[in-house]
Specification:
Elements: H1 3-29, E1 38-42, E2 51-54, E3 59-63, E4 68-76, E5 79-82, E6 86-87, H2 96-108, E7 111-114, E8 118-122, E9 128-134
Antiparallel strand pairs: 1-2, 1-9, 2-3, 3-4, 4-5, 4-6, 7-8, 8-9
């Protein structure tokens, strides 16, 4: 006799699980209004890990693959300007070129397109510099 009760409950659970998945996917695709509080890594990661974190009060921090870097950024909608970045001064022969390129692309950024899981950086001419993925996404 328990079967007539179990079947509707099971179907209801499946429907709710499907709705939760759709809601989660929609949230991930929504534009992200501010980068503050987010952390990103390149889609194509070199030998050592690179990332950039946008902190409160316009502070930016990250790791280029060998050295840590830090500085300031300003964001106004899709316009993003990253100021001069200071860094530690270790030498890692195998990743120095990738690190220099990563930091230069960050500093060349003038426009962003961001969702909750993807970030695209563009220069002043509208050319895509880099694609990043969210590292701190739950």
């Amino acid at each position: 006799m328990a079967l007539p009760i179990v079947l509707p409950l099971a179907l209801g659970a499946l429907v709710l699980a499907g709705c939760a998945k759709v809601a989660s996917d929609v949230r991930k695709a929504r534009p992200l209004a501010s980068l503050e509080g987010s952390e990103w890594g390149p889609v194509e990661t070199p030998a050592k890990e690179q990332y950039v974190a946008f902190k409160a009060n316009g502070e930016i921090r990250g790791h280029g693959g060998c050295n840590q870097f830090f500085g300031q950024y300003t964001q106004d909608g899709q316009t993003l300007t990253i100021g001069a970045l200071a860094s530690t001064k270790k030498f890692c022969a195998e990743v120095m070129q990738a690190e220099t390129t990563f930091i230069q692309k960050l500093q060349d950024t003038r426009k962003v397109e961001a969702t909750h899981i993807a970030l695209r950086l563009y220069n002043a001419d509208g050319e895509e510099l880099m694609q990043l993925r969210r590292r701190d996404w739950d």
